[in-house]
């Protein structure tokens, strides 16, 4: 290479010769670059290229791919100015560049590609790439829902790409995946172990092959492809944009052109562009790629080690998730009528749910496809169901509200009713007389009478309930619902098989999302299929849902971040397979929490089992979720807080985003959203929207009734208690996780898996607790709807079973009052407030009898004798029923609380006792079946569910009698039932005492008998003899030995702990049973319960009393040390409290820790509603809150567990409020220890915390209190407020303790300032003013009248005086949850002592007496100061004495004490 000097010399020589260097440049001839061929030759070249493999790797569909053609027909990508971050170029250079670009485009358009692309009907304008979004799909489903097209699978057979030899052969990006890897998948990996891609192995979205196939997949165009490979043009574009390099126009987007050409080339083929295999056929090459700094990767996220263990991934790996099962062919679109009808032309449908539309009843259920034996969703519309109204004729006609002498016959009633129908413009109606019976609470209605029966359609308006006429006094059945009318008329008892005759298969077209639709013109065509046909319940498709939300701070709304679903197809209700072994399919649709996903996150999702769909926004997420939801078509939706929270958020987001096809969440097609009432009723509207699908929520009333061991009913607690080991769930703070450890691809994948695993936990709880089988049997017994039973409406089940029973016996049933009408009627009847209070008190009739317990520790065998189903048995024993008990005397004179008489023995058995006897008999038959050793596990599970349902229903029948909101409310019957219960319990106790047995406690239906036996055999013998004696007295009532207690600690009413002996395989096993103690209340933390459990184990261990007490004291000392060293896990400090109302509605919310925590959660956007359980930890606070009350220092566990939160539990609070009160009550019956000793073991100061022993304990030693005057001042005035004097000159505040206590502040000239730099004397007037001011402060404090509870566990502080005297009303003001007594926080004694203290500060003689006890110079000095200040101090003391004279405590009214001696 020439040097710089040689180059310069060469340039000088050229300049001297007048030449330029370019003139000496020689161009070498390289030959022809392109071959010149004609059209036929060019086609041969393209075919030869297509027959070869790609010469460039296609980078998973995002890079280059060869389709055989040249690059000159590719168009450059035009970038809109609003999509670019750069400003448009200006100036001459830019203008010249634009002109050159225009010339280049013209050259391209007029080049050879013009001839190759020309066609007969082709336009010169380029075609836009067709992109089918989820919204488009949903819109087309709404518009053309009846058109169900067959869309082929994503599997692309190469032999079908070209239909003719003359057609140009076009390669679709790369060879299909299935042909290359089918053999490899079969040989190397099992079906459940293959991490399948959501695109390449699953059928398309519109396919119906879902019995055994994988989850349906959506269009590839909508899938976020994640991060591109390094060689991809997308990656290059990202690099250009991130480094702020101007976009070059010459670089075109090959991917867009390829996609456009593929769409054009295959337009006449059976393969759609949306079904193209976009993921490619080859694994991406391992290239070293430099990752540019992006928001997701620039700074490493802080990983919380306690979260990133991700134990839920281990649980997920054990599940039977179907990844790539063999597909099964299924029919498309709606089912044909000939595929489902029987040979006689009738239709069989198993109905599951219902809804009411415009006076017609719509039933949803399942029908069997005769072609393949599968079951499909079905919809039946039933028309012409008529209202049934019963008019009770008057004896005499009424005119203008007054009775006349004109008698009324049925013709008169007919004419008035017919005129009423004419005025209401009811054309079609039927009227006829009939005879009906009545046995309920309305006065003036005869037991049996002739009524006028009116039938008219439900699409006409209903009559008001209070309708009365001239010829009729009452109208019954005005507000009977359409569903109730139908099931009562057709005697349909819950979900069952229905026979539908003469169904019209063409009248209903696309009214629902079901696979089969028909219409029944009248209800007479529908009849229940008899049980003798033994038709099995069809299998159901179950879907469990779990969502994660993100708070939109700007709008203060919860937005959906991800939605996970787990689908169990064709599940039989009697299947006993464990949840983890059941085959399932999963899908998760999500969007990024920020602007994008972490790098390579999409690659991470492909490694997981199941389907993961990455969307760009919440709107796309909702559309995709609905599309998959509709395809899976679940019969049952399962969730946690789905009924109260999750479903509402989902529906609100769909409404706000205007998601097309939103009504696919249910099975009824709808045109518009229902109108929401501001006053509430949201649940009922949500229930209507999902009509056709059952909602099973593990945290609603039904779920809670099956999980009584839970306290907070959080999903984590449910899993821990009911799913056992290996199924522990971790609570995560999603917002915090997204800002920290979930910002990486692995962290986000763990967060997504956490959401996905929740769907398994929910499904496992539903299956393990047998929620669906149990609720189905309960519904079959009651005859209501399955959906309502799942929501936990026990009162409604009782109503329906009575409705069916009374309807069969030709009784008119009472109408259902709405809560609004009921309140209005009560207000009208009650009159003023005093009457209303009397009525409320009257409604609380006496319940069960509870004996006063003989408290103490028992170490001999105790028998618990229990009556089996006492109240149902009493109803049967004494024939208590609406139809048998005369309630007229009671109802006419209710104020005397007269208990009605029991029916005579010769009276016919009533409907209620007969119904209960039927339920008990059916349960007895089922239990006999369970003893069959040949029964299968499925049969045993079914029978066990049935017997439990019969038991629950029979035991709850009494409840409807005393429930004021029930339409069968009959207070006299409830009073009679409980009266007989109390009578039976008293007679049982008397019988035991007559046999020299000691009854130590009794409660409602059981008694505890102290046998004084040391062996269990002797105790059981006593129990059997007593059982025989009791049962001989009654016909149906039975008493039995319920429990045998080895040792018992009887604390109070409904509060005890015992060692219970249970027989297992012929051996007795000891088990601790606790009832009603503090450790059973959710208001106590886990640490408190652990301590109580430890103490109970020691107390009931049977060891020597002294040894037990030593162990207890040592354990408490050790516990206090651990707590003060913070060696106890923070989770054990969590306290749970249930909110009875909204937190901002509590008047004392500032002093309530749960209210403060709830308000803090609301401020963050969390939903908090009444009846929610709030978890919190009382901490010592931070630098700003350490001096605030405990309520202000209470935080949620998530806040406390955050790294670097600096929050630690307030150990002193927990020792005083959570540990000490329970153990004090537990140890109260045990001699040898007391509250002071226990407090000392915990390190508490008894005087500081004013620890009081229970005055109600009979075992407490009587303490002798000395006279107040005999108590030293240091003790008597220890809690008095000290006098503070403020200097007028230096503003120094000093505490003055009197002459003896503050001698340095006294001088011969009076009181001086304690500040050595000031030493100015206080004027007497200044001192008097300050003393009076402080006296008035204490007086005002006394008159505030604050009351506090003496129970340290309660802590109730209020100014409201209880009507129960000194009884504490509890923290909620309901007179429940606390048995303490209220006392004034600042009593009159404290006020009196305060005044005495102030007066004593200025008592000179008292100071001299104190000085006399001193010695030396101090004695003389105090005596001299006393004399010098006698006049000054005397003046001040006179002012204080004036206030003391006004205090009534120092005066005793002798005339009041000795008035009885004065002769009148």
TrEMBL record:
Pfam families: DNA_pol_alpha_N, DNA_pol_B, DNA_pol_B_exo1, zf-DNA_Pol. GO terms for molecular function: chromatin binding; DNA replication origin binding; DNA-directed DNA polymerase activity; nucleotide binding; single-stranded DNA binding; zinc ion binding. Residues 474-718 form the DNA-directed DNA polymerase family B exonuclease domain. It is found in: Nucleus. Residues 1269-1458 form the Zinc finger DNA-directed DNA polymerase family B alpha domain. Its EC number is 2.7.7.7. One of its GO terms (cellular component) is alpha DNA polymerase:primase complex. Residues 97-108, 178-192, 237-251 have a biased composition (Basic and acidic residues). One of its GO terms (biological process) is DNA repair. The keyword Hydrolase does not apply. Gene3D superfamilies: 2.40.50.730, 3.30.70.2820, DNA Polymerase alpha, zinc finger (1.10.3200.20), DNA polymerase family B, C-terminal domain (1.10.132.60), Palm domain of DNA polymerase (3.90.1600.10), Ribonuclease H-like superfamily/Ribonuclease H (3.30.420.10). Belongs to the DNA polymerase type-B family. This is DNA polymerase. It comes from Penicillium subrubescens. The lineage of its organism: Eukaryota, Fungi, Dikarya, Ascomycota, Pezizomycotina.
């Amino acid at each position: 290479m020439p040097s710089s000097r040689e180059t310069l010399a060469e340039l000088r020589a050229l300049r001297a010769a007048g030449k330029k260097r370019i003139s000496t440049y020689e161009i070498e001839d390289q030959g022809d670059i392109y071959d010149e061929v004609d059209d036929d030759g060019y086609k041969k070249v393209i075919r030869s290229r297509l027959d070869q493999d790609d010469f460039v790797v296609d980078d998973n569909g995002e890079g280059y791919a060869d389709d055989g053609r040249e690059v000159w027909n590719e168009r450059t990508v035009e970038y809109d100015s609003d999509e670019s971050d750069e400003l448009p170029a200006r100036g001459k250079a830019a203008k010249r560049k634009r002109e050159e670009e225009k010339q280049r485009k013209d050259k391209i358009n007029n080049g050879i590609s013009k001839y190759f692309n020309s066609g007969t009907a082709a336009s010169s304008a380029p075609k836009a790439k067709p992109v089918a979004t989820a919204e488009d799909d949903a819109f087309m489903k709404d518009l053309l829902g009846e058109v169900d097209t067959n869309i082929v699978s994503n599997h692309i057979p190469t032999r079908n790409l070209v239909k003719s030899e003359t057609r140009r052969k076009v390669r679709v990006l790369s060879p299909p995946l299935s042909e290359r890897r089918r053999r490899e998948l079969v040989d190397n990996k099992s079906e459940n172990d293959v991490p399948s891609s959501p695109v390449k192995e699953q059928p398309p979205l519109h396919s119906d092959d879902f019995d055994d196939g994988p989850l349906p997949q959506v269009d590839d165009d909508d899938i976020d492809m994640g991060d591109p490979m390094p060689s991809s043009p997308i990656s290059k574009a990202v690099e250009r944009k991130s480094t702020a390099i101007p976009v070059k126009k010459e670089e075109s987007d090959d991917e867009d052109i390829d996609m456009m050409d593929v769409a054009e080339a295959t337009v006449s083929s059976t393969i759609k562009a949306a079904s193209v295999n976009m993921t490619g056929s080859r694994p991406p090459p391992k290239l070293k790629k430099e990752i540019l700094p992006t928001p997701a990767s620039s700074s490493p996220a802080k990983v919380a080690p306690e979260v990133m263990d991700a134990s839920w991934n281990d649980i997920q790996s054990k599940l039977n998730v179907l990844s790539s099962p063999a597909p099964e062919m299924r029919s498309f679109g709606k089912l044909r009528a000939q595929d489902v009808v029987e040979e006689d032309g009738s239709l069989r449908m198993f109905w599951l749910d219902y809804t009411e539309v415009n006076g017609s009843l719509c039933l949803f259920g399942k029908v069997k496809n005769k072609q393949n034996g599968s079951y499909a969703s079905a919809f039946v519309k039933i028309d012409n169901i008529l209202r049934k109204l019963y008019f009770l004729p008057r004896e005499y006609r009424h005119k203008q509200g007054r009775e006349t002498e004109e008698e009324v016959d049925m013709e008169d009633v007919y004419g008035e009713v017919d005129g009423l129908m004419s005025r209401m413009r009811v054309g079609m109606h039927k009227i006829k007389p009939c005879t009906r019976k009545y046995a309920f609470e309305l006065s003036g209605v005869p037991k049996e009478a002739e009524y006028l029966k009116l039938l008219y359609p439900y699409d006409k308006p209903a009559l008001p309930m209070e309708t009365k006429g001239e010829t009729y006094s009452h109208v019954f059945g005005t507000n009977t619902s359409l569903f109730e009318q139908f099931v009562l008329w057709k005697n349909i008892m819950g979900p069952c098989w229905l026979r539908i005759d003469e169904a019209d298969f063409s009248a209903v077209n696309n009214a629902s999302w079901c696979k089969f639709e028909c219409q029944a013109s009248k209800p007479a065509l529908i009849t229940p299929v008899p049980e003798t046909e033994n038709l099995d319940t069809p299998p159901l498709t179950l879907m469990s849902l779990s969502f994660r939300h993100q708070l939109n701070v700007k709008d203060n709304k919860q937005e959906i971040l991800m939605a996970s679903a787990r689908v169990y197809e064709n599940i039989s209700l009697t299947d006993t397979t464990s949840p983890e072994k059941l085959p399932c399919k999963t899908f998760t649709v999500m969007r990024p929490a920020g602007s994008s996903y972490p790098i390579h996150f999409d690659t991470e999702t492909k490694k997981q089992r199941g389907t993961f769909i990455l969307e760009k926004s919440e709107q796309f997420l909702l559309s995709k979720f609905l599309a998959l939801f509709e395809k899976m078509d679940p019969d049952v939706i399962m969730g946690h807080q789905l009924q109260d929270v999750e479903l509402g958020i989902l529906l609100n987001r769909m409404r706000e985003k205007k998601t097309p096809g939103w009504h696919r969440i249910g099975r009824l097609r709808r045109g518009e959203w229902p109108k929401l009432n501001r006053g509430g009723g949201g649940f009922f509207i949500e229930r209507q929207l999902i009509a056709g699908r059952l909602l099973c929520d593990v945290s609603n009333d039904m779920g809670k009734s099956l999980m009584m061991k839970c306290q907070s009913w959080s999903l984590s607690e449910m899993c821990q208690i009911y799913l056992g080991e290996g199924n522990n769930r971790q609570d995560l703070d999603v917002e915090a996780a997204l800002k920290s450890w979930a910002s990486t691809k692995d962290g986000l994948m763990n967060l997504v898996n956490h959401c996905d695993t929740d769907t398994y936990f929910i499904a496992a709880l539903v299956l393990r607790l047998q929620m669906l089988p149990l609720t189905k049997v309960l519904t079959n017994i009651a005859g209501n709807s399955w959906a309502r039973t799942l929501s936990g409406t026990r009162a409604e089940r009782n109503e329906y079973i009575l409705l069916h029973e009374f309807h069969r016996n030709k009784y008119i049933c009472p109408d259902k009052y709405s809560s609004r009408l009921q309140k209005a009627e009560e207000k009208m009847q009650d009159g003023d407030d005093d009457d209303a209070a009397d009525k409320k008190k009257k409604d609380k009739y006496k319940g069960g009898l509870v004996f006063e317990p003989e408290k103490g520790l028992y170490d001999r065998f105790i028998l618990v004798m229990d009556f089996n189903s006492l109240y149902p048995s009493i109803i049967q024993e004494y024939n208590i029923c609406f139809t048998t008990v005369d309630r007229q005397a009671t109802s006419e004179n209710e104020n005397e609380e007269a208990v009605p008489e029991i029916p005579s023995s010769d009276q016919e058995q009533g409907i209620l006792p007969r119904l209960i006897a039927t339920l008990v008999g059916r349960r007895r038959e089922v239990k006999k079946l369970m003893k069959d050793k040949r029964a299968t596990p499925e049969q045993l599970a079914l029978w066990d569910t049935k017997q439990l349902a019969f038991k629950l229903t029979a035991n709850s029948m009494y409840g409807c009698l005393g429930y004021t909101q029930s339409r069968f409310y009959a207070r006299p019957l409830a009073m009679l039932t409980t009266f007989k219960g109390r009578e039976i319990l008293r007679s049982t106790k008397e019988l035991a005492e007559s046999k020299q047995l000691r009854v130590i406690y009794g409660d409602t239906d059981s008694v505890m008998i102290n046998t004084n036996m040391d062996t269990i055999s002797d105790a059981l013998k006593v129990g059997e003899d007593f059982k025989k004696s009791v049962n001989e007295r009654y016909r149906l009532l039975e008493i039995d030995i319920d429990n045998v207690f080895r040792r018992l600690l009887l604390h109070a009413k409904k509060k005890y702990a015992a060692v219970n002996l249970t027989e297992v395989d012929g051996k007795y096993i000891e088990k601790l049973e606790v009832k009603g103690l503090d450790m059973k209340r959710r208001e106590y933390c886990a640490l408190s319960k652990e301590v109580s459990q430890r103490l109970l184990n020691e107390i009931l261990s049977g060891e020597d009393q002294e040894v037990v007490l030593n162990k207890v004291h040592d354990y408490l000392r050790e516990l206090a040390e651990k707590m003060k060293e913070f060696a106890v896990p923070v989770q054990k400090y969590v306290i749970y409290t249930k909110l009875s109302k909204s937190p901002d509605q509590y008047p004392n919310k500032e002093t309530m820790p749960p209210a403060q925590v709830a308000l803090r959660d609301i401020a963050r956007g969390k939903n908090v509603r009444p009846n929610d359980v709030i978890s919190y930890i009382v901490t010592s606070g931070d630098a700003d809150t350490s001096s605030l009350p405990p309520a202000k220092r209470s935080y949620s566990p998530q806040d406390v567990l955050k790294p670097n939160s600096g929050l630690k539990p307030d150990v002193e609070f927990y020792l005083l409020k959570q540990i000490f009160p329970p153990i004090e009550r537990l140890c109260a019956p045990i001699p040898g220890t007391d509250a002071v000793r226990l407090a000392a073991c915990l390190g508490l100061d008894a005087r500081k915390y004013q620890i009081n022993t229970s005055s109600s304990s009979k075992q407490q030693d009587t303490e002798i209190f000395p006279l107040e005057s005999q108590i030293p001042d240091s003790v008597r005035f220890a809690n008095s407020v000290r006098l503070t004097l403020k200097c007028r000159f230096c503003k120094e505040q000093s505490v003055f303790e009197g002459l003896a206590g503050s001698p340095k502040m006294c001088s011969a000239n009076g009181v001086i300032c304690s500040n050595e730099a000031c030493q100015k004397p206080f004027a007497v007037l200044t001192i008097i003013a300050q003393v009076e001011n402080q006296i008035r402060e204490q007086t005002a404090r006394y008159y505030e009248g604050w009351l506090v509870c003496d129970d340290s566990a309660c802590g109730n502080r209020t100014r409201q005086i209880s009507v129960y005297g000194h009884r504490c009303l509890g923290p909620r003001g309901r007179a429940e949850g606390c048995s303490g007594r209220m006392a004034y926080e600042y009593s009159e004694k404290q006020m009196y002592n305060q005044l005495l203290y102030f007066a004593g500060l200025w008592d000179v003689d008292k100071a001299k007496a104190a000085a006399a006890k001193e010695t030396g110079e101090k004695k003389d000095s105090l005596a001299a100061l006393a004399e010098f200040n006698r006049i000054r101090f005397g003046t001040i003391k006179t002012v204080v004495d004036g206030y003391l004279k006004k205090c009534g405590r120092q005066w005793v009214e002798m005339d009041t004490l000795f008035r009885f001696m004065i002769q009148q």
